[in-house]
Amino acid sequence: MSGPTIEELEALKSALTAEIESAADGAALEAVRVSALGKKGSVSGLMKSLGGMDPEMRKEMGPRLNSLKNDIAALIEGKTAALADAELDTRLAKERVDVTLPVTPEAQGSIHPVSQVIEEMTAIFADMGFSIAEGPDIEDDFHNFTALNFPPAHPARDMHDTFFLTQDGQVQASGAGAGNEPPKVLRTHTSPVQIRHMMTHKPPIRIIVPGRTFRCDSDQTHTPMFHQIEGLVIDTETHMGHLKGCLVEFIKAYFEVDDLNYRFRPHYFPFTEPSAEMDIGYSVEDGNISIGTGEKFMEILGCGMVHPNVLKNCGLDPDTYQGFAFGLGVDRMAMLKYGIPDLRPFFEADMRWLKHYGFRPLDLPTLVGGIAR
Predict the structure, then answer these.
(1) CA quadruple 132, 136, 140, 143: dihedral, nearest 10
(2) What is the average pLDDT across 11-26?
């Protein structure tokens, strides 16, 4: 058997060299390698033909074919390195940073005091074992009033307190509904979420409910939309002492005071019995208010033991289960703690106000690191 001529080997080498040099990427180069040095490649085929040659021809063609194989392998290796270098250069060019550019300005965003205070309260109550519950802003009469033991003629149902929705979704300060159906309302408190939770979860229950609420009121300390956070505990053994201990520890942690001068005064809420308001002591020195000490008192929250009628309305037996509930105004708590004199700028989107009273975005409040950051 005769082997290829020297001219044929040179022509094959030239063709393969041209294909290697023209390969634009790794995939194209791999295709050339397979076509030349793969099991069925052109060079591999010639190497296999050595076995059929006569001894003299094999002696002559063996070194030439080995040299061709090694040359093609070296060319492929060199091209592989060149492609890798080119890819690296391209990537470095794209990722190049112009160090002469000015420094990027510091982020201007701030956490709103309302969001900050909700995070602070949540951190405290979470440490006490409370979970968070949420519900809709638009409520029906049952969840917002009836289930909470509001009598049909209670003043809170009146147009002066409640925003009512018409059938076409318009808001009006009137209780006149369409037909015989009670109108939908913008919830006046977050207590409807407590009702929904008690109707869908079995005791023991320990939740807090932060959220927006709506009432027809607007002045220095009231806005038509404001924020509340309420708490609810339902269990078989719950009493007023548990309620007082929970709230006292919360106020101490929130205002970061060790000694707290406080008192509970009898009050009336339709959904709790007995009901109370909690006052905390404060003093004023050189125009600064100190929370927790002093002979003056300010009302801070409302609370009480859940009314048996509310438990019945939620399908719970009041002879088996008892519980307590409380509610705080988030906006007012923010004003007290951070010395904000007026409630109305909370909702005016004034960047100057937010820069002054805002909080750093990533500095989250924790009991370990500190509530007020």
Answers:
(1) 0
(2) 85
**What letter represents residue 94's amino acid?**
K
Phi, psi of 345 (to 5 degrees): -65, -15
Do 89 and 206 lie in one domain? The reply is no
Which is higher by pLDDT, 311 or 348? 311
Distances (CA, A) of 148 to 55, 113, 235, 253, 269: 107, 30, 18, 30, 10
Q: Which DSSP string corresponds to 243-289?
A: HHHHHHHHHHHHHT-SS--EEEEEEEETTEEEEEEEEEEEEEETTEE
Residue 367 lies in a domain: no
If asked whether residues 204 and 327 sit together in one domain, one would say yes
Burial of 157: CB neighbours in 10 Å, binned 0-12, 13-18, 19+: buried
Greatest C-alpha distance within the chain: 120
Domain residues for 89?
6-94
Q: Decide: 66 and 72 in contact? Cβ < 8 Å.
A: no
Instruction: Return the residue matching tokens 């205070």.
Output: 117
Contact criterion met (CB below 8 Å) for 212 and 330: no
pLDDT in tens, 99-113: 787 776 666 678 899
Short-list 2, 122, 94, CA closest to 52: 2
CB atoms within 10 A of CB 224: 15
Q: How many domains does the chain have?
A: 2
- Report the share of the chain in percent with pLDDT over 70: 90
Question: Nearest-CA neighbor of 209 among 136, 294, 291?
Answer: 136
Q: What is the pLDDT of residue 3?
A: 63
Give the DSSP H or E segment for 187.
none
- Judge if 71 and 212 occupy the same domain: no
Contact 239, 212 (CB under 8 A): no
Q: Which two tokens stand for residue 107?
A: 């982020």
Contact between 204 and 242 under an 8 Å Cβ cutoff? The reply is no
Dihedral (C-alpha) 325, 330, 335, 341: value to the nearest 10 degrees? -110
Indicate the pTM of the whole model: 0.67
Cβ count near 180 (within 10 Å) = 5
- What is the C-alpha separation between 37 and 50, in angstroms, rounded? 16
